[in-house]
From TrEMBL, chains A, B:
Residues 329-352 are annotated as: Disordered. GO terms for molecular function: glycosyltransferase activity; nicotinate phosphoribosyltransferase activity. SUPFAM superfamilies: Nicotinate/Quinolinate PRTase C-terminal domain-like, Nicotinate/Quinolinate PRTase N-terminal domain-like. This is Nicotinate phosphoribosyltransferase. Coiled coil: none annotated. It catalyses: 5-phospho-alpha-D-ribose 1-diphosphate + nicotinate + ATP + H2O = nicotinate beta-D-ribonucleotide + ADP + phosphate + diphosphate. Keywords: Glycosyltransferase, Ligase, Phosphoprotein, Pyridine nucleotide biosynthesis, Transferase. Catalyzes the first step in the biosynthesis of NAD from nicotinic acid, the ATP-dependent synthesis of beta-nicotinate D-ribonucleotide from nicotinate and 5-phospho-D-ribose 1-phosphate. Its EC number is 6.3.4.21. Residues 6-130 form the Nicotinate phosphoribosyltransferase N-terminal domain. The keyword Coiled coil does not apply.
Length: 433, 433
């Protein structure tokens, strides 16, 4: 990806065009990103994509090919083309750092810049945050359900090829231990995993030959897929070929709870007490929860993860909440469209804690940081970009590692109800202070 | 995107590694892509992504950066790295051309190559086809519901930024008239649209100033967004400022049916009988169907389109169905895993028609093309790649145009029940001949 600048809706550019002509495009503006609600029944969400958004921001430049195309299609005129030619974001952004829990109306991102500079970024910012946040929010329910057992992301084939890369990263933010996706592993230094599919077994004249080829190539510590034909026979063969060192067997079909018990008994009776069992058939957080009592060692999660487990987008919006008038005085603004009302004015946010150190409210303040007279609070928004400079610690592999730690810390602070998988209200209320 | 080769699951490479070591990787194989079922309640699906997949196939090369990373992570050894260095797909592919209707078990793609060559492509092929097919299948329900009224794709912000580009293309395959996404417009010469958001109105001291700025920049033929504050007042102002030439007004909130009637009456009473009404608030195929009786001129569709309207992935799989043995003789293969059985052997497919020229069955034959003694049939699979050469007409802007025409033709042939939006069975049965 050389330039990210055309990953946008046409109207961002036409608004700049009309605003440059009228002069209003130079007004200082505050835009905010928030979700009016969590996906149906969810208790909390997890902010993700911040690092990717900041990486893409640095590539948000209009080069020759982009400008030539815009000119040839007459999408904007000469004045706007000149503006776009020199465009680089020179404003500032504050937001919930990646991995942080969010709730309805949490101001997860605040963008301060001229209208023209901030408007141009709307679609790109929302695309990244809406997708990655949806995946991380689903992934968090899965890692919470899995407890100490590792989850492995294997969903690449069930989502667009670049969403797969972003989804693997978002899963890592929310505690997934590894991914099957190589490009995600390369970009953000994620752990990658993978051994063989059913096709590898079918390729050989017998299951035994396939297992032998795999063990010869990767040693007995490999993971053998044992459900191409008959599971019991396959486990016997796997142990016979790989011996007591056999790393793991994988089950990818059928009643996983029952099979895990049977296979565990069989492995133990063969002396393979340290051979692990990996399961991976259409798992979601509910299936993981059901499997917690079964002797399973790790979970491979695919489709349901990369499609957000029923909520493929976080439905965040990017709204103008404040802008200057001709005298340079800030004016709070809000639309009053039916069902889509918003709250004007730049916001700050803090999480409030009870005496036991559990989060008990999301405080959102207009203009200044909300506090509580008697309770501890924690400021939630941090500087991400200051005067055009992306702040350190949010991008690259470091950004993902820090976000994963933040996710653990932030989820741990939530009330126990956060771990409930059934549908319910947000786990803590959002209070406009 | 320089190389697409790491947009894959690790196990595709480790299977090649083990297969090269054992020699089995050189066996000639047939893999097939199909969906065991349509998304719940859908009557038919629309194949999409074929052109993008073929475009990406030409970039599926392991260059220095990819090989260095694989070596540094020790994901595969020297023999496999050598193989990957020279990799280019030299096999053949046949499949349903893009835009064609498919049904459960339709063999939408057949890949013939050595195991190593075909296995490597699994994840990438599925990622592209599963995403684009899901979007096109949802889009087709929308364009069918919309009848002669144009649908415009506006969902970029609600999906990952590259999925947005692919989604706009898939929507065009299924009959969408235009997209807001500029990168999609550039890559495949799609029509693009867009004028202004609520932020543009809020930026100005009054709605009137905002409308004036927009009309000055784009002329009276522009589309004015009239629901930032009070719709009736906004329509009056819009007509006052733009005059009888006002191109369109857009409604993005509230009860669209009721508002469309009111705004139409208002526009007509002001003499603006040719000013159009565009609606765009969380539309899906059901909302479009409800709006068909309202005086609406076009539909802007976002979230529900790019998330597949409840079915974000087509759940297609890529299965080994045939491979040679040591003597070079083809052997049909299939796994027998519980709930995931497949049918061995390379398949061909034809659509069968009744005397009125309506499609009445999907015929799938093993080995040879299925025919019907008394009824007309049409062969469905066409050559996409022959001996490594991508066949003309499937990629680029031409590919999208041809796919859109094919979609129209193919949907038109289906029984009337295909147009029902309520849940039901596949509109024609799949018959294994």
């Amino acid at each position: 990806m050389s330039s990210t600048a055309l990953l946008t809706d046409q109207y961002e550019l036409t608004m700049v065009e009309a605003g440059l002509a009228s002069g209003a495009a130079h007004r200082r503006c505050v835009f905010e990103v928030f979700a009016r609600s969590l996906p149906r029944g969810r208790r909390y969400g997890v902010v993700a994509g911040t690092g990717r958004m900041l990486e893409g921001l640095e590539q948000f430049r209009f080069g020759g090919p982009e400008l030539d195309w815009l000119a040839s299609r007459k999408i904007v005129g000469e004045q706007t083309l000149e503006f776009l030619r020199d465009y680089r974001f020179s404003g500032s952004m504050w937001g919930y750092p990646e991995g942080e829990v969010y709730l309805p109306h949490s101001p997860v991102l605040r963008v301060e810049a001229s209208f023209a500079e901030a408007c141009l970024l709307e679609t790109f910012i929302l695309s990244v945050l809406n997708h990655d946040t949806a995946i991380a929010s689903a992934a968090s329910r899965m890692t919470v359900a899995a407890g100490e057992r590792p989850c492995v992301e294997m969903g690449s084939r069930r989502t667009q090829e670049m969403s797969a890369v972003a989804g693997a990263r978002a899963a890592a933010v929310a505690g997934f231990a590894a991914t099957s996706n190589l490009e995600a592993g390369r970009r953000w230094e994620l752990g990658t995993l993978g051994t063989a599919a059913h096709a590898f077994t079918l390729l050989h004249d017998s299951e035994e030959e396939a297992f032998r080829a795999q063990v010869e190539a990767f040693g007995p510590g490999t993971t053998l897929l044992v459900d191409t034909y008959d599971v019991e026979a396959a486990v016997n063969k796997a142990v016979e070929i790989a011996g007591p060192e056999l790393g793991a067997v994988r089950l990818d079909s059928g009643d996983l709870v029952e099979q895990a018990h049977e296979v565990r008994r069989q492995l133990d009776s063969l002396g393979n007490t340290s051979t692990q069992i990996i399961v991976s058939s259409d798992l979601d957080e509910h299936a993981i929860a059901r499997l917690q009592s079964a002797p399973v060692d790790s979970y491979g999660v695919g489709t349901k993860l990369v499609t957000g487990s029923g909520a493929p987008t976080a439905s965040m919006v990017y709204k103008l909440v404040e802008r200057t008038d001709d005298a340079g005085t800030p004016v709070r603004v809000r639309k009053s469209s039916s069902g889509k009302e918003s709250v004007g004015g730049a916001k700050q946010a803090a999480r409030r804690y009870d005496a036991q150190g559990r989060a008990d409210a999301e405080l959102v303040g207009l203009g200044e940081l909300p506090t509580s007279p008697d309770q501890r609070t924690r400021e939630l928004m941090v500087p991400l970009v200051l005067d055009g400079q992306v702040q350190p610690g949010h991008t690259g592999a470091e950004g993902v590692r820090r976000a994963a730690q933040r996710h653990r810390d932030s989820v741990t602070e939530l009330p126990a109800a956060a771990q409930r998988l059934q549908e319910g209200e947000a786990v803590i209320p959002t209070i406009f202070a």
